[in-house]
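Running this now, will post back.
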Amino acid sequence: MPTALEWAESPLSPDNDFVLSFGSEEFMLRVTEVTDAIEALRRLDEIPSFTVRLSRIGIYIALPLDFVSVPFEKYIYCDNLYQGYLHTNDDSLIDEMMKVLYGGWNS
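Update: finished.
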């Protein structure tokens, strides 16, 4: 089995594998695993052309998208958190907004 350096110098083919070491452990990585990972990760550098909204995060279910039946106070609170985030880039405000939008806020 070739080392990582030998693999890098050889032509890509599904028969090529290489050995990586992490600390005292060694593991084999197949070319097919690398190409599969590249395909899966390729989307990370592209911004989707549509809005992504998770309807659920774990056990938490999102509030209605149009805020129907959501108390006005929660709407204003979310808006204030978002405006604060835009002004300060403080991620804790997004965390707090998530608690409201996904049912973790005590009303």
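The radius of gyration is 23 Å. More later if anyone needs it.
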